[in-house]
Design a protein that fits this description.
The protein has 272 residues and is α+β, with helices and mostly antiparallel strands. The protein contains seven helices and 14 strands.
Length: 272
């Protein structure tokens, strides 16, 4: 007898697999930049090893340290489960360096990089995308905190877990950032969209040169640890600030807020 399955006889839900998981749907989504964090200089790594130049005059030399920045984008119009809204972040500390790294080289920071090469950097791509989307002319990314945006999201499914769920990783690129408006395909009229306000609680701005204890306490533990591992942490304003306060052992507000949040809110490494 051939195997047969009566789909109509199957239960609508079960305690096992196929658990519902919310994620940021692919396509144009309303968003806001909710966090800007400067994490100091770090040596680039690749597959757990210090990254080296593989060609040119510096072939075989260790790559220059990079200043790492984390941006967090919230998608307040998307439905989510748990107590924390869906986000996409850059520069997530990982065992082999960073996922979805956003970095600035010393040449660009010191104004020694030509405009031709600067325009190729991800930092300048983000800066120009924000300027175009908001009409705000600023040399710093933190100026765009809480500004309404439209972001093109792409999804990649991960491996199926033992419980039957498969995480969905949301990806974005700076080229996908636009103003929250679309031109009607039939009338040609520009339609503006209202972006909901921020839902979660974040470290809005963590400035490397002017850190505050209030901002530090809102950072996730892995980000705090990353800052402490920075090559320029010793002698930094952050080190001086933390020496004035006892260590915290119970985690940050952000950690507690994200307990039990599905893995789907974390982005896959962005392919640029």
């Amino acid at each position: 007898m051939a195997i047969s399955v009566n789909v109509n006889a199957l239960p609508e839900s079960s305690e096992g697999g196929n658990k519902e998981t919310k994620f940021i749907p692919a396509g144009n989504q309303l968003a806001r930049l909710v966090s800007y964090v400067e994490m100091g200089f770090h040596t680039p790594e690749f597959k757990g090893k210090v990254a080296m130049y593989d060609s040119g005059k510096r072939a075989g030399e260790v790559k220059d340290d990079e200043f790492i920045i984390q941006l967090v984008f919230e998608f307040p119009a998307c439905e989510y489960t748990g107590d924390f809204p869906l986000t996409i972040a850059t520069s997530i500390p990982w065992k082999d360096g960073f996922l979805n790294k956003l970095s600035i080289g010393k040449a660009l920071l010191e104004g020694r990089l030509s405009k031709q090469y600067a325009l190729r950097s991800k930092y300048i791509k983000y800066l120009n995308a924000f300027k175009d989307a908001t009409s705000i002319d600023s040399p710093s990314l933190d100026a765009f905190i809480d500004k309404p945006l439209m972001i093109t999201v792409k999804n990649v499914k991960g491996k199926v877990k033992e419980d039957g769920t498969a995480p969905v990783y949301a990806n974005m690129t700076p080229e996908g950032i636009t103003s929250p408006s679309m031109r009607h395909p039939m009338t040609g009229k520009l339609e503006e969209y209202e972006v909901p306000g921020i839902i979660g609680e974040y470290c809005t701005v963590y400035d490397w040169e002017s850190p505050t204890k209030e901002a530090w306490d809102l950072l996730r533990t892995n980000v705090q640890d990353c800052i402490k591992r920075a090559k320029n942490y010793i002698g930094s304003p952050t080190e001086a600030m933390l020496l004035e306060f006892p260590d915290q052992s119970e985690g940050t507000v952000q950690d507690k807020a994200t307990e039990g949040v599905p893995e789907v809110s974390m982005p896959k490494v962005e392919q640029v």
